[in-house]
Amino acid sequence: MNSKGENNMDSSQVDRMAELTQRFAKLEPAIDDSPQKEALSILHAMIQQVRREMLRGSLNSNESSSRAFEKDGLLFFTPDVTKATTKWRPRPGVHDNNYQDILQSYRSEYDFVVKEGNYDPALAGKPFLLADERDHDAEPLSFDLVRRAVLKEYGRRFAEYREGGGEPYSVQPPPLLTAGERRSDFARQFAEPLLLVPQRVDPAVHGIAVGKPVTASAALAPYPPRFAADGATGQLRASWQTDPYPAWLKIDLEKPAKIGRIHVYTYWGGGRYYRYNLEVSANDKEWRRVVDRSKNTTPASPNGDDHRFEPITARFVRVNMLYHSLNRGVHIVEVRVFGAE
Ligand SMILES: [Ca+2]
Known about the structure:
single chain, alpha+beta, 3 domains, seven-stranded antiparallel sheet, disordered N terminus
């Protein structure tokens, strides 16, 4: 594949992989049986990965004791995994700035305000490097390297916090999951087809908002408004996110529809809960509140919040995010709007 001949696949094999990928994409929606569908999806994802890696000429091999598949650039393993081996061939210079990159990535995050468990986006840090960090030698990426960078940066932040008069306080880690909980957590996250965005939208299942224009008061770049109406509910990353609240998200159904049900999937986990209300409008000017969840304290779950109300004809649906119990960000995985008879 490349000039050094490092990859022993030729272009006809890459083409063959491309053809297989296309075939699987066509075959998948036609199969209803979910174990079969899951197996097929995994195979499909693996073929895509192999193809990508062949094109890139980097990954030499990937072996694991479990089923493994790649999605969105990440490698996933089924819960029975006990061993995984991945080999690759480093490109020249690839390790040059690992340490610096890790530190800068931490420093481009929000600074944590150690107050009420929240952080303040107004204090977002600017990435920087200290003199000794700039001089750090090239070093292969490893868990140890990441650990040292974490200790360095969080040690620095802690010293800064203490110098500012801050007092240490204890933080409880979340409880460790049992094997059974890990299994059910996995099943919950991946119960939907692995290609999470449905290839065929069924209004009875996915609602009538999928793919419609979505706007919001603001959005973090990796989490645009349209992710809240892409049909996918099973994956936290397929969400609209912004910071801080209050914030709104608006879906334009593009024509009037009689609506009697809106199913909102917020982010979930860690006991978090969100407060919001839902409004609908025929003209994008006058709004009518159909759901009030402004006093909610029930933790969010992967099942979302299914709201039913007296059917009303409207073209626009707006979610006003008012509060999130863990931090100032708000996160909507999906808004499913259902037509009424
Ligand atoms: Ca989504």
